[in-house]
Model the fold of this input.
Amino acid sequence: MVTRIVIFLLLFTPFFGVTQLVTNTSMTPTQLVQNIFQGSGVTISNINFTGNSGAIGYFDGSNTNLGISEGIVMTTGTVSNTSEGPHGPNDQPDAGVDNGAGGYGPLTNLAGAQTFNASVLEFDFVTCSDQVSFNYVFGSEEFLEYVDTDFNDAFALYISGPGFAGLQNIALLPNGTPVAINNVHTAGTNVNGVNFGPVNSQYYVNNNNGATIQYDGFTTKLTANATVQCEQTYHLIIAIADAGDGIYDSGIFLEANSFNGGNSLNLDHTLSANVFNDDNIIAEGCVTTTLTLERSSCNNSQATTVPISVSGTATEGVDFSNIPASITFPAGVTSVNLDFDCFQDGVLEGPETIILEFTFTDNCGNVSTSELELTIQEPDPTSLEVTGDEIDCPGEEVELIATPVGGIPPYTFQWSTGETTQSIFVSPTVTTTYSVTMNDDCLNQPITVDYEVVVPEFDPLVLDETPDIVEICPYIPATISANPTGGSGGYTYQWSSNFDSDLGNTNSISVTPSTTTTYTVVVTDQCGLSTTETVVYTITSPPLVLEMSPNVEICPGDTVEIGVTPSGGFGQYFYLWPHSGETTSSVFVNPYETTQYEVIVSDECQTFTVEGNTTVIVVKPTANFTISSETVFNNLPIQFENLSQDAITYVWDFGDGQGSTLVHPSNTYLDPGIYNIELVAIDEMGCKDTIMRPLEVEEEWYVYIPNTFTPDGNRLNSVFEVSTYGVQRLSMQIFNRWGQLIFESNDLNFGWDGTYNGVLVQDGTYTYKVEFVTNSRRKKTQVGHVNVLK
Done:
């Protein structure tokens, strides 16, 4: 039956072309499942399809980027070869057909939105093993623009039966995440303009502008797995539907012959050492092979014996240990192991093969055969190479590396230094030979290799430096140098003196010392060998030293002599005072403020000058005073407060022919008028400062204004009036709280009875303003408050 169907499809394939997806709807859903989808180890029954008949069919994807060569395709629209179907190229942004089919309840619940155009393929199956699996690809026109939106077509693979609580979705990624548009995609931007990052992108194929498939994207080939119970009936539902609306199709591609029950017998093997990086090649004489056979849980209640057939080019008992004719699974045991070794026969005979064939009958009576072919290969002979960099200097560190070839790891190493690592670090000061012995884990043939580390030899490092220098005068320029020979070359220089630790790093430097100085140069070659020499620059004349006249204090404008006394140097001295241009050793100055004076002195060397400074400090007191009262009347004593600073004696002139030498004197003026008060402040050096201020003495006056009166008619304090002395004229104004003028008088002897327009004012506080002229014709103004209480 299978052979006939394949021939039929091949005959029709050229009609559809081979450059893109090919589909055919000539088979019924039952034929598609039984003849295309079904594999081995399962029995299928009760096949049913719900949906539009044009939404399911056979496909040939051998010339596409789908990853599956043929199988069944189910869509939410059509499988026909139109621009709206799954056929390429990917030239439609919104390919899809609303085929009028209804939704599917479980998918509606899964999507959280109404579903449409559902295609649902379901059937019962029984397997003789405890596993079932099949391969598929999920694709959609909704990639990527509808990621993270409410419009995500729904897809699920539901299994139910013994061991499952209701419907279990097995459309899962290897990490257990459900297969869905939101769960498998690269980064992008959806139709709402929202950017999103990649999610499980390793399982996503971007089909943008693809030539063979219409859908914008699809998954890589995935496998659905389920653990089942032997010989029990299970139900599988393969369902896909549009969600939210009936446009933008999606499709599920089921791989042909991939719906299989689990193997009744699984065969695996491990090598104790994978010498050749190939699990199927055994190193002769060095590696143990462990065969592991596993049977399903369906038939483990009884002991089962599995026959073993051995063939190949290798000879049993000569090239490998005897392998039994069978291996037995004890009752209740699902896994057994078998170990065997390959012998080292010492004959170079090239690769040889061992073919093991295991025949197993499951509890359904199905006979299956598993075969394992292994190759026996001799390890390469061992050799050893030691490498190391050349060294340029004695004592330089170098790494010696032993590199083994052939044999079987792990390798052991023994160096003449006692170390047992594959590489060592050495720092010889003379040429030295090192040896290392290597052995492998299989051939056991020790190999010893010597390696000579050559250390170069150099002549001693010697300097030819500038001879010592002697001069009478300081600051005479000179160039000193050091010329090395010997050593390893690549010289570096460091100059210093007893005054400066860093004078340069060239082979010569220029110097202009002010006093006898020892210059030191350290020369180092590229191997770090150093030598040191000195050059002494001697100056025979003693240093020129200046003794300045000490700082002096004077009164402003006083004359004082300042000068300098030099010593040392060479020959006679020369002077220059920059402030005046004078060239003598001393000068007279008379500053009015503190001044620093400079003198420049040189000797007969004329190679340098020395500057000296002295300061003439101008000091004087500061005269100042204040008067104790703001208004001064004649015939009353006036107190003067002395605020002078830095003074010890004082001379007062009060301007009326009177004076005083007290610190804080007082004076009484008999007549009004303006008097000039003078204070002379004198410090302990006799320096003076004078201040003069005018003082206005007025004829005595006063104005008394009460703050409360009671216009209640009891003849006590019932009138608001003022008392004056020495006042010629007076005007009074009274205001209420709103600033309204309620009383006014220019009578010196006025009286306010507390009324306004003939009516007593309310109790409260009122503001007054009084302006008056004294007998000394001084105009005064006072503002205040008066309380009215009745």
